[in-house]
Specification:
The complex is a heterodimer of chains A (about 120) and B (about 120). Chain A is mostly beta strands. Chain A has no helices and 12 strands. Chain B is mostly beta strands and about 120 residues long. The chains are: A mainly beta (about 120), B mainly beta (about 120).
Chain lengths: ~120, ~120
Amino acid sequence: AQKVTQAQTEISVVEKEDVTLDCVYETRDTTYYLFWYKQPPSGELVFLIRRNSFDEQNEISGRYSWNFQKSTSSFNFTITASQVVDSAVYFCALTRNTGGFKTIFGAGTRLFVKA
Amino acid sequence: GAGVSQSPRYKVAKRGQDVALRCDPISGHVSLFWYQQALGQGPEFLTYFQNEAQLDKSGLPSDRFFAERPEGSVSTLKIQRTQQEDSAVYLCASSPGLAVSYEQYFGPGTRLTVT
C-alpha cells in the first residue's frame, strides 16, 4: 500500500527562524516520485519540487531545501530564515510508475510564521 | 498564461440534487486529475484523464460520481443525488505530461456544501 505521513499537524515559528517539515512515505515500488506542494490561504496548491526515486541528491532553491533519504523513506523540507509569506499548508505527495495514476497526498502541515 | 480555472467557485445544493462542476485545464495539458479535499485534509484522488480517455477512476467514491472530458480539454465532474458527506472542496489539476512523474497545476477549487 502507498502512504504518506506528515506527522506535524501545525508548526508555529517566529520570522527568520529555520523550520523543517517532515514527510515519511511507504511504497513497495522501486520507481516512484515525490512532490511538495504549498497551499496558501488563497487556496490553490502550488508545485514546489519533484524528486524521482533514483535521485537522492539534496536540492536547494533559495531559502528552500529538500532532503531525500531512501534509507529512512523520508523527504523532508526545510525553510531557512522563514518569512510571513511562507505561512501556508504544505503537502507532501507520492506517485508511482505502475498500477494506476493515483497521487497520494499527506494530510499536510500548517505552518504559521509570526512577524 | 492562464492557469486552471474551475466553476462555480461555490455551490450549495440540497440533499438529493444533482450538481455539475467544471474544470478548464491549462491549454495543451494532456493530463487532468480530479480530487476531493475535506476540511483539514490533503486532496484525495478521484479520477484521471489522459486526453479524452478516463484511465483511472479508482478514487470515485460511488456510482453517484461521474466525470467526463469528451474533447480532451474541459472536464465536468457530476455528482448525482448529493449527500451531506459529499460536502468538500473539489480540485482539478492538469499536467503537461502523460505520466504521473510530472508536476500538477491546480485550480482554485469548487467548494460544495450539501444542506
